[in-house]
UniProtKB/TrEMBL annotation, chain A:
Localization terms from the record: Cell membrane; Membrane
Enzyme class label: translocase
Lineage: Bacteria, Bacillati, Bacillota, Bacilli, Bacillales
Native source organism of the sequence: Paludifilum halophilum
InterPro entries in the record: NAD(P)H_OxRDtase_bac/plastid, NADH_UbQ/plastoQ_OxRdtase_su3, NDAH_ubi_oxred_su3_sf
Topology term for the membrane: Multi-pass membrane protein
Protein name: NADH-quinone oxidoreductase subunit A
Family: Belongs to the complex I subunit 3 family.
Amino acid sequence: MDYAESYVIVTVFILLGVALPVAALTMGRLLRPHQPTTDKGISYESGVDPTGDSWIQFNVRYYLFALLFVIFDVETVFLYPWAVAYNDLRTDVGLFILVEMLIFVFFLVIGLLYAWKKKVLEWT
Amino acid sequence: MISMNGEFIAFFLLSVMAIAGAVFMINFTRVVHMILALAFTFLGIAGIFVTLNAEFLAVVQVLIYTGAVSILMLFGIMLTRHRDETRDGGRPWHAFLCFLGVGGFFALLMRIIYGSPFNGETAKTETFSVSGLGESVFKQYVIPFEVTSILLLVALVGAIILAKKERS
């Protein structure tokens, strides 16, 4: 089978993945009774009536966590080609390949330590 | 004449997906729905990368844009006052002028594209490999790679300083 044609299988998987929840939810809609009341519409909060609005302003802490996530996500992306090419490059440039990645990670660790020092990682 | 092979159909569907996501993002009134539409666009673009044999780029697109950047935007929006759903419907001539401007820009762009000669062959896309990417990044472009980490560090430290200043 051609390499590009193997993506037909991937497409079939994607279609199945979309079709399965759609079919399940449609079947549920057809089978279940439908009697909505306002009490049923209230969001469940451990048996206590919810107060206020669910659309609140988030704490800035969430944003910093998301930013940390993005930065270390980018680091992960660089680790992939590094790991794949590691053996070829080690015969070529020696241990410099390891040092390169260590320098890269070192700078990001400085950032993480700074975040730790500034109590970004704590939930007070 | 365009042949109707699988690649063309895939490209067509993915382009529709990307453009539809972008159009929905502009038209939705709730910001969270906008982010979902934008994530849809990112997925469509990742699919287009796959049709171009750039699988690594597609995975990176899903990992960073669909995953991380969408989350970042979502949390960024959650920081703001996001209950505002007011629509600007007062000026009908405004939309018309926008249409004229965009239409003119489209015509100009198409004129330039069709008028410019494309000499030589297009680049081959079949020869890409992650190992080759790794070799060029870690052998040829070592300094830019290390500078990238400093750039990420600066972004992180800057964001922390700004967030901390805001709270105190």
